[in-house]
């Protein structure tokens, strides 16, 4: 009987499906292990009683008995397999779901123990713990039988990255013009590898479904994922960028890029997303419905502003987007950070974080066009319309509110708050 | 950080087959195979297409992706699915006047103590609020901004980024607004051409009287009758004396058609036949109503309300939906799709399953999209038993929120609340 165990101290990992098997030495009989996230799991077994059905290309002969394990990755990960702790001259061979060999090692871990390191895409794989020759090493060195114990260590390392996707507009340099290096650096600095970050620049003056908006965003995210073998991607976005992300995640079948990106994103941190539109978009667009009379008003607007009118976003939420009330949830968590108020006193230093927002016009807008709970551009109801939400004052230093301008800047500890999603 | 979500994406020829997306039945296959499948006919409130639009091109298409893509993901049990048309509620109004009219005096009804007013002139020629003379209903005159608060000049308004260049604004002082009717006169109107247009918008936060407008559905198909419901709503005691309305229908390309409303005591209904689609994919139709009402205490109230709805070209239809159970306990949902115009079409469903405590809950969202040429096609969604198991549900199942979407033209063509029952 096989002897299997999990290192339960590695809390982030789990092993399931270790029902003892009489002879798990072929792919069809493989025992299943499920690596989850990053970490190491170890299993113990022996080759006693197994058959010598398979052999790796790096073994001396095909006479060694082997045990086969299978594992499934739900995201790209760097996987290290080794047999350190085993009692004989092992060989490891790694195979894909079609049993094609994608790695074989004899003594890579030293002391006649084996090691294979590969970056693997999501899918199912097999790993065979085999011997260099005969049952468990050289026949003349051992009569191992059921005592030929091995230890298989499986270390998965998922590369985590963060992407910043801007809001309305088409900035030439989104890092400098929309975000600022301070907040990007703060958040990226909380990654295991701070270099795994990207700032997307697309044309969000267009409708969210435009190729230059959602299409461009998905292509940039895919390129970043592929270039860095990203297994877990956290997207941080602001304002109308939340709608573009929701378009991609709500319509994964629209393109292979959308599906691919959706499969890699693990969370969207939507800062002040305009999920429910804004009365200010209505104000910019209208006028009256008599377009001829109001051409000068509508001429100021672009497609993104038109799209963010209240009734327009309500329509898209009902027909094209997921994540709002009475609609299916998105496939990933979409957490809105809600700006609940604006402090615009010229005598309050906090008003200047992120640049002083003109007081007179802002106060008029807040009093006339927006609700008491707003960030100066979006009502709280709009920001809360999709996904889950957190109010600004619940985490900011001093309980300061985040105006629409401040919720994309390093104000009142926003960066550290976002770090919680990428650590 | 580890994720507990399960997503299944398949992009031909690459299949991203993940743990829950594969076999492992949620109930013994024999049990699920014994399920009786009941096909449910579309019910009132569902959206269907009867006559197809044939031979439409893809010149304006926003998506001509050729690769088939499938996607499925788990849904939280608290998900609610419903089709609820947006109800827009207005607490202000807009009016367009000429420079000549403003020189002579424009009457502006107000209902609250501190209405906010913005003035957006044609050609960004700002009108300084302090140059406006205000006369209240009892003949008192206020000059040089004395009747105003929170005055925002063109520079202050521009700094908010919310309105067209040249926009100015202010709030009326309570003692003036309480007289219910004021007259604006612009002493410098002679500087403008007599026909120069000026838009005045009055917002009345906290008002007890709003005008609400909703289309009877979120989306329609060309050739269908579009209905609208209008209602005056009051949050305080007191009734409406009488009211008048002017209504317009505006197509995405800006074509305006007067709309006749049949009025009741404090509500109205209108219908329009939308017999052609125009504009770009995803752009919406709008209906706008200007209403003027007399309250029972003699005061006048004005409101402008607008809502949006989508109109799709009937490029394809679901002729039939059928279901079955696969050998591994998978739930299969097949659509006979009749295509009149080539395009990329997505079929999507939400599968409900039964929990151990007998509740029918949302479990899985499943979609499949591909390019289809004119003719009859079959598209099948396979909801893997492993995914249903991971959702923690078993039979009975229901297939709900069935949708057919033209991804090329962004048109919703079929929406059926309940389509199949597996018992």
In words, what does this structure look like?
The complex is a heterodimer of chains A (423) and B (423). Chain A is of the alpha/beta class and 423 residues long. Chain A is 23% helix and 22% strand. Chain A has helices at 174-178, 181-188, 211-228, 241-250, 256-264, 279-285, 295-298, 303-307, 310-319, 359-368, 380-383, 414-422; strands spanning 31-33, 39-46, 67-73, 77-82, 90-95, 101-105, 115-120, 123-131, 149-157, 159-165, 197-200, 230-238, 265-271, 334-338, 388-391. In chain A, the strands form 3 sheets. Chain A has a 6-stranded parallel beta sheet, with helices on both faces. In chain A, strands 1-3-8-5-6 form a 5-stranded mixed beta sheet, with no helix packed on it. A 4-stranded antiparallel beta sheet of chain A has the order 2-9-4-7, with no helix packed on it. In chain A, α2 (181-188) packs parallel to α12, α3 packs across α4 (241-250) and α3 crosses α5. The longest helix of chain A is centred in the middle third of the chain and has 18 residues, at 211-228. The two termini of chain A are 41 Å apart. The longest helix of chain B is centred in the middle third of the chain and has 7 residues, at 154-160. Chain B has an 8-stranded antiparallel beta sheet. Chain B is mainly beta and 423 residues long. In chain B, β9 (132-135) and β10 form a beta hairpin. Chain B is elongated, with a radius of gyration of 28 Å.
